[in-house]
Amino acid sequence: MELWAMGAIAVLVFYSNYMVAPLIPAFSREFAVFPDALGWLVPGFSIAYGISTLVYGALSDRFGRTPVLLTLLPFASVTTLMISFAVTAQQLVTLRILSGVGSGGIVTIALASIGDRYPYAVQGRPMGIIFGAIAAGMGLGSSFGPILNPLLGWRSEFRTLACGFGLLAIFFSLCIRSSTDAKQQRSYSYREIAAEYLSILESPRGRRTLSFIFCNGAFHGGIFAWLSLLIARRYHLGDLGIGIVLAGYGLPDLLFGGIIGGWGDKYGRRYVVPFGFLWAGVCALFLGLQVSPLLAALIIAALSIGFEATHPLMSSIATSLDPRHRGQVTGLATFTKFLGMGVGALVFQHLVGLGFGTAFIVFGMSEILVGLSAIYAFRDERAAMSVTLAKICGH
Question: Is residue 36, in this structure, part of any structural domain at all?
Answer without folding.
Answer: yes
